[in-house]
Amino acid sequence: MHGESFPLRLLKLNNDLEQIIDEYKPDAISVEELFFNNNVKTAINVAQARGVILVVGCRKEIPTFEYTPLQIKQAVTGYGRADKVQVQKMVKTILNVEKLPKLDDTTDSMAAAICHAHSAKFSQKL
């Protein structure tokens, strides 16, 4: 996939996400708000990928929720300034799994989903 052009990778993301949504029929989509760091090229690519996710969510009429990195860390670890290792350990504990996927992005998406689950549960109690 890394040999493909970026537009083709975005198309693959679109198609794969639509297939996953059709198969699993999620109630919501949660994504991390873009945190701009020093690498502008990476930030632009991530922003474009997020755009695909947001558009697919709209097209499939699935409510989409965005959370800041601080909100996600707070929901998962109880501490908004937790580091990546702390977040990974808590995701592993919360999901009761022995191993996490090797890609940090996958663990980050799991943390965003956990954050939304906590937020949705809390908002239903109000």
Kindly describe this structure.
- The chain is mainly alpha-helical and about 130 residues long.
- It folds into two domains: about 1-65, 2-Layer Sandwich (Nucleotidyltransferase, domain 5); about 70-125, Ribonuclease H-like superfamily/Ribonuclease H (Nucleotidyltransferase, domain 5, 2-Layer Sandwich), CATH 3.30.420.
- About 65% of the residues lie in helices and about 5% in strands.
- It contains five helices and two strands; from the N terminus they run H-E-H-E-H-H-H.
- It has helices at about 5-25, 40-60, 70-75, 85-95, 105-125; strands spanning about 30, 65.
- The protein has a two-stranded parallel sheet.
- Helix 1 packs parallel to helix 2, helix 3 (about 70-75) crosses helix 5 (about 105-125) and helix 4 crosses helix 5 (about 105-125).
- The N and C termini lie far apart (about 45 Å).
- The model has no long low-confidence stretch (mean pLDDT about 90).
